[in-house]
Specification:
about 210 residues, five-stranded mixed β-sheet, 6 helices, 10 strands, about 30% helix, about 30% strand, globular
Length: about 210
């Protein structure tokens, strides 16, 4: 079981070549994420996504979402019990389908990640409804040498563990007026799950500390 709160992963078994699969996933990405009319707001604030960079006629955001770092190593493949295991030529072990991003990093195409990109909107909607399986926390990270406040939204239910990361954009008055989309991905590693657990617990503890 994945989660009865989310739709099923995108079916790709009717497509045979890597190009066909990527084109099909991209059509869903365009319809659900690139289309502002279908992209939900988050906590009544606009979600901005930077579509200024393109690779092979597809947004670089798409390529990032459906790929893995080249240095990812797995003892057990995340797609082991998933239909994408049969469709993928062990690309995270012996990469044959890769993409070179504008920052110079090379990433391995991952159908497992790709077939879950439509969950982004669905999880945002669950966050807006304060669903009990949503955890949110804020964390300051250094991005390109600049400290930024990032918002994490994590959905854990059934066998699903999925995180979406935004950068908060503030007005001159100090209020959040917009969320800048950073990334979204299924959480594979036990170490990463524990790291996120600890970050959430630490953030919750800070909220309980009375302000002086």
């Amino acid at each position: 079981m994945f989660s009865d709160k989310l739709s099923s992963p995108i079916p790709i078994t009717n497509h045979t070549t890597n190009g066909e699969i990527l084109d099909y996933l991209y059509s869903i990405f365009k319809e659900n994420i690139m289309d502002k009319a279908k992209r939900p707001k988050l906590f009544n604030k606009f979600i901005f996504i930077n579509f200024s960079k393109w690779i092979d006629l597809k947004s670089e955001v798409f390529w990032h979402l459906i790929s893995l770092n080249r240095n990812e190593r797995f003892n057990i493949l995340p797609c082991n019990n998933d239909v994408t295991f049969m469709m993928c030529p062990n690309n995270c072990i012996t990469p044959t389908e890769t993409v070179l991003l504008s920052d110079g990093s090379e990433r391995n195409v991952c159908y497992y990640r790709g077939t879950r990109i439509h969950w982004i909107n669905e999880i945002i909607e669950l966050a807006n409804k304060s669903d009990e399986d949503i955890k949110t926390w804020k964390k300051k990270n250094i991005i390109r040498g600049i400290p930024v406040q990032q918002l994490y939204i994590r959905f854990t239910h059934g066998s699903v563990d999925y995180v979406i990361v935004f950068e908060e954009k503030y007005s001159q008055s100090g209020d959040v007026y917009q969320y800048y989309f950073v990334t979204a991905f299924p959480v594979f590693y036990i170490s990463k799950k524990l790291e996120f657990d600890q970050e959430y617990q630490s953030y919750q503890s800070q909220l309980l500390v009375p302000k002086k």
